[in-house]
Write a structure and sequence with these properties.
Number of strands: 0
Largest sheet: none
Length: about 130
């Protein structure tokens, strides 16, 4: 079950954002499907009614799966925060060193990117 949810990680540490976007998209599709079911409730026909019942069942299953996913994400986020908090409390200087190194690395990357940024051709150098 854990692997199923970890597939939503986009590899850039943005798993929370990807998961949120996915959940929002799924919720929107479910709302639209429910609206479609309500608007077609007056349709007749045995085959249509059977298809509608199957669709309602699938929608109910999807609703349940989304609820489980949200619960899993909340638990995982809480566990990650607790683990990080515990590590920082047990190893405060290592945490400071990691933060400092991350800041230095970010500064170097930003500095390099600014140094090699192509000059803008739409303005002469020195003009405001």
């Amino acid at each position: 079950m854990d692997n199923e949810y970890n597939d939503y990680n986009d590899g850039n540490g943005q798993s929370g954002n990807s998961r949120d976007r996915l959940l929002d998209d799924i919720r929107r599709v479910m709302r639209e499907a429910e609206e479609l079911l309500r608007s077609t409730g007056q349709q007749a026909g045995e085959g249509y009614q059977a298809a509608r019942e199957r669709f309602e069942s699938t929608l109910s299953t999807a609703r349940h799966s989304i609820s489980e996913l949200e619960d899993h994400l909340a638990v995982t986020a809480r566990e990650t925060m607790e683990s990080t908090d515990r590590y920082v409390k047990e190893n405060p200087w290592q945490a400071v060193a990691v933060g400092a190194l991350a800041g230095i690395a970010l500064g170097v990357v930003v500095g390099i990117s600014r140094r090699y940024r192509p000059a803008r051709k739409d303005r002469e150098f020195g003009e405001d």
